[in-house]
Amino acid sequence: MPLWLTAFLLKFQRVFAIAVVIAEAGIAVTGSVVRVTGSGLGCPTWPECVAGSLVPVPHPEVAPLHQWVEFGNRTLTGVVGIIAALCVLSAWVDRPRRRRVLTLALVQFGGVVLQAVIGGSLVLTGLLWWTVSIHMLVSMVLTWAAVLLVASLREGDGPAEPLASRNVRRLQVVQAGVLGLLMLAGTFVTAAGPHAGDSATPRLLLPVPTLAQIHADLLFLFLGMLIALGFMLGRQARRAYLVLIATVLAQGVVGMVQYWTGVPEVLVSVHVLGAGAVVIATANLWTATRVRRHLDDEGLRSQTAGSSVASHA
Description:
It is a single chain. The chain is 71% helix and 2% strand. By secondary structure, the chain is mostly helical. The two termini are 34 Å apart. Residues 297-313 have low confidence and may be disordered.
């Protein structure tokens, strides 16, 4: 590889990692735009947009707007793939090569491929509600992994060492599980709600108020765990904790306004944006309660106290 390209990749390695966090969360938002505009089958085939063409062309049964909205979302998948590929390349040319950084970068690239396959199945199955749920949940998992990738670039390669008590770590594990259930319940509310992605798409035949109540209850449980963490955490994670608190409260407000106002389209996308922000903030708090120290050439821990503090600033 040319030296100038290696230098470019290494110089912007952290930028690529941050960009993939934004891209993974952002493509979920554009997916919600596809849904609320009824453009889920704007490109009725896959991988082509319409039979015989990869790009939108005049079609008697599909409005141009729906074609371009869906095609735009598909195009963004390619953009995320390019960013993920840059993450992989920069991790590959780094010396010494860092296994954890490379693995997390490969997770991003593999995730893009997986999401493309899932996206294709959405179209081929006519937007079955459970396939849409999987699509959303995988995006959130990849967003979490992208935050870990960013953290890995400022950390060392040693084993994870706790900066908080065992009870804090246990609570964080349970909280991560509750967050997953919270996201799953949110996809169920959407699946039963008015925004199907296409007027002919079958809906989840469960009452929306009941699903919304379950979703809200899980949010309150998540917030309760977060309050408990506040009494248990040390100062080293205080900023990450406050960011998460603010993000969860803002997301809760959006969800309540969304429900009270009849689920307007714009708030659906804002809510999905908030979901990504909650995942990012939760993953950031996770990394703030652990440290991986740098290793010297003999494999001994050699990170100074100053660099440890800087890695979690």
